[in-house]
Amino acid sequence: MRYYPIYVNLHGKRCLVVGAGQVGRRKIATLAECGAAEILVIDLAPADPACAEIFAHPAVAFACRPFAASDLDGRFLVIASTDNEALNWEISRECSARGILCNIVDQPEKCSFIVPALYTQGELTVAISTGGGSPALARKIRQGLGEFLGSEYGALLLLMSRLRPMVLGLGLGSPANSAIFKALVNSPLLEALERGDAGAAEAILRDILPDALHGEAAGLVSGALGHAGA
Description:
The protein is built from 9 helices and 7 strands.
């Protein structure tokens, strides 16, 4: 099977996690970080006191009881991380019947979506998937990305994200905007940020940006270098 890669907006969405073991808690934390409005967590064992911070998140509601089909009502996305094969199949079938996105951890045959290995740096997220064929290889590739993508990439992304509305606000039109953004990412700006060379980075911005934005160069570079040094 070839999976369709997609990034999902969870803001305002209600999610369910069945199983609050070590893997389940990682899933809960990621859902919370991505802004899910509500995360109902169900487990037969009481919440681990060592993970009180996760369960104290305002979006998380923990229930120490068995799963019930009614727990799926109104859910946008469901993750199950249990060692109960019958329960995993039940959740998978119920979600399929209701058209709910469902992931059964490490069991792709029961899933409507799989979760890739993720490399994150600030707002930069790189997803790696082997189509469920080898999660271990996906993790190895993720580690390699961590060695290749230094903090300068996160710094450049921050600079570009702050610059983008400024450029669009000039009303130059799509072709001109695209040319500016392409010139910036293909310039030596990344290398200047890697060196921490504020002067060179500012000079590159002023060389490429329209005159109206030259006054923003110092602030943009300062913010980006502050991120890289964080």
